[in-house]
Amino acid sequence: DGGITQSPKYLFRKEGQNVTLSCEQNLNHDAMYWYRQDPGQGLRLIYYSQIVNDFQKGDIAEGYSVSREKKESFPLTVTSAQKNPTAFYLCASSSRQAENTGELFFGEGSRLTVL
Amino acid sequence: AQRVTQPEKLLSVFKGAPVELKCNYSYSGSPELFWYVQYSRQRLQLLLRHISRESIKGFTADLNKGETSFHLKKPFAQEEDSAMYYCALGGMRSFKTIFGAGTRLFVKA
Fold it and tell me: To probe the interface with A, which of B8, B44, B50, B103 has the most A CB atoms within 10 Å?
């Protein structure tokens, strides 16, 4: 079953703890993305990666970190420096090949609640 | 800077009425514009993109570079069109894609 898998779906953490959200894709896509979805604010780009071992900050990167050691994986760490971490996080991937240019494929999301 | 503006948070129309969801963008290069849709309890998915000039589920969108707009239109709304719609902007040579705040469309019977 091809696609993007995010885990966990729900996560509760205490304030001050770092937490890592997993994102795996088997679509052989080069690019991967992390967005944060808040009511009334839409999707805001946290980080994106065009290729293995390379990534760029999005519009709201502060308090987050990522790695891209494998093409299939793009984990997001929400650090204690993130002031308002409770949110719904979406991972996506895309290919620049042929007719799929630019289309993003999304995971089901991870809801993080910080207590 | 890249920016996408969707001025309406909520749009409510009656079944069979025309619907237009507005999207304006700001981008200095050659834009790629998309509409994504999120139905209840489903993943966010692509609805259409300006490059392909296609009509999906009766929806169309025309890129107007002069007005920097990419409004989504459908002549006759259906109840199953009720969903959250996001306009998105990417660059021709860029992987960076940003989204607007979204418009919730509610089609009443």
Answer: B44
Indicate which of A103, A105, A110, A111 best probes the interface with B, i.e. most B CBs within 10 Å of its own CB. A103
Asked if B44 lies within 8 A of A59 by C-beta distance, the reply is no
Q: Which residues pair with A21 in a beta bridge?
A: A76
| CA-based nearest residue in chain A for residue B34 | A103
CB-CB under 8 Å, B44 with A106: yes
pLDDT for A2 equals 66
Contacts of B34 in chain A (CB under 8 A): 102-104
For residue B21, give how far its alpha carbon lies from the nearest alpha carbon of chain A (Å).
15
What is the arithmetic mean of pLDDT over B52-69?
Answer: 88
Identify the CA nearest to A107 among candidates A21, A12, A20.
A21
Q: Where are the beta strands (DSSP E) in B1-109?
A: 3-5, 10-14, 19-21, 24-26, 31-38, 45-49, 60-61, 72-74, 83-91, 97-99, 103-108
Mean pLDDT of all residues in A6-32 = 94
Contact present, A12 and A113 (Cβ < 8 Å): yes
Q: What is the mean pLDDT of residues A11-19?
A: 91
pLDDT tens digits, one per residue of A40-83: 888 999 999 999 999 999 999 999 999 999 999 999 999 988 88
What pLDDT sits at residue B104? 96
